[in-house]
Amino acid sequence: MITNLHIKNIGIIEDIEINFNEGFNVLTGETGAGKSLIINALNIISGGRFSKDMIRKGENQSYVEICLFEPENENSIDGNIIISREINSNGRNMCKINGRMATVNELKEFMRKIIEIHGQNDSQNLLDSKEHLNYLDGFIGCKINDLKETYSEFYTKYLNIKKELKENYGDDKERQRRLDLLKYQYNEIEKAELKNEEDEELETKQKLILNSEKIASTLNDIDISIGENAIDIISNAIKQIEKIENIDSKYQECTNSLKSVYYEIQEISRDISNYKDDVYFDESEQKEIENRLDLIYDLKRKYGNSIQEILNYQNEVKDEIYRIENMEEYTNKLKQKQITVTDKLNEISLKIHNLREIKAKELSNEINKNLQDLEMKNAKINIHVDLLDNFYETGKDNVEFYISTNIGEDEKELIRIASGGEMSRIMLAIKTVLANSDNIPVLVFDEIDTGISGKASNKVAEKLSKISKNHQVICISHLPSIAAIADYNYFINKQIENERTITTIKKLEETEIIHEIARISSGEINEATLNYARELRCKKLA
Asked: Quick one: 247 exposed, middle or buried, by C-beta within 10 A (0-12, 13-18, 19+)?
């Protein structure tokens, strides 16, 4: 559920916080006070679109933060989830889920499972026939989940087989062209007789050959410096120090050190001489190395970034050649497997269809009972479950809600016949039926009572209250019957501060609730309207 909503710089909202509670939360207030901006803020934090025009005049950014208490959600920390969205006037968005950066799409996908917003002209889910199947399956509940899970496993196999058959190179000519190409590639790699890390060894040799003249000259200079200079100088120094080494032990140590250096330099001198002997320049070998490297580079360009990748590709080509050369046998096996999987899919999808058909009648009846309660006595919902020819992710069914709003009229698709006010009541009827199975924890209703009055308004209030037993309900309303039955009431007001209009919100105490019910019942607060408000409120408190 939502525990706190923080909004900054949206329209006339400068900076407000709302602490919501479990159950039925009703927001009331005068027209233009900012009630719709709160719904806009909930839309924004749910990943909805945002217009720069919504940013408060004189500000560069808007900010919405929501705190949820969802102890079973894997993203929660001690049950709490903090979600924020900052939008700048330059169009830059910054979304966070518990401090982790998220994209708008990630935010939308996350919040889709938390909040569902319904407005007087915003029943997109009800107008989307794809959602009708979700409503029906939600009503069926656990009975259909196992079937759908099994169906999904076979559907994945079915798609993979179809894809593999489609990729089996088409007709004989296309297959032969592909086979010729693969054999050419395989032979080209095979002929090269590649060895792992061969290119690195060749590059090292090439580098030595290309720098052979420089290496020889340098080694020769070093050999002269050591052999003709350093060794003779150190040898002479040893002879001199030996003359005094018996005088003091320290001179003996110095003699030993000089001899050690002398022997080490002699060893180095021999190594340098050997290096000189190893240096050579062979033009034919250089050409051979260059040609070999050119071949390897060409194969890398075609088949991989390294010799190992080229060899891996060669193995893949070998496997594909085998499949193509044995295509008829391989394809027949696939087709037989496809028949088996298709038969299983048909079997499962028929079970799903039969279950949906039975439950569609039950759901239709339950919705129609609620529509009667909501003063749509002549309306009749009929849920069609049509078995299609093709397999889809959810089965072979097309589920669509049909309605007849008056006796004697033909039923038509819901999207073609229902008005905005009717849509609100139909959605409310559906939500009432699905209240026990619907796993969306927060339902927001934005003035769905528009155009409703009298007995129907009392029924709407009862339905909303019933839904709030299993969901947190946040409702913006102008109806006194709805305000009277709320668990928590909030009053939204606008006022002038420093020559700017700002929105304020206050959670009402019981006396204030009575006054607000009286105000929205007739626009005036007097003894008669207060008594009427008390009567309405008593039904809630009774």
From this structure: exposed
From CA 174, how far away is CA 243, in angstroms rounded? Answer: 94
In eight-state DSSP terms, residue 42 is H
Q: What is the pLDDT of residues 158-217, one digit of tens each?
A: 999 988 887 766 566 777 888 899 999 999 999 989 888 888 888 877 777 766 667 767
Does the pTM surpass 0.70? The reply is no
Q: Tell me how far apart the alpha carbons of residues 105 and 122 are, in angstroms, rounded to a whole number.
A: 20
Fold of domain 1-114+440-542 = Rossmann fold (3.40.50)
Rounded Cα gap, residues 444 and 434, in angstroms = 15
290's CB contacts (< 8 A; 6+ apart) are: 206
For the chain, domain boundaries: 1-114+440-542, 173-325
Secondary structure string (H, E, C) spanning 107-152: HHHHHCCCEEEEECCECHHHHCHHHHHHHHHHHHCHHHHHHHHHHH
Distances from the Cα of 121 to the Cαs of 95, 118, 240, 442, in angstroms?
A: 27, 8, 109, 19
Q: What is the pLDDT of residues 36-56, one digit of tens each?
A: 889 889 989 998 888 788 888
**3-state secondary structure at position 51:** coil
CB atoms within 10 A of CB 238: 16
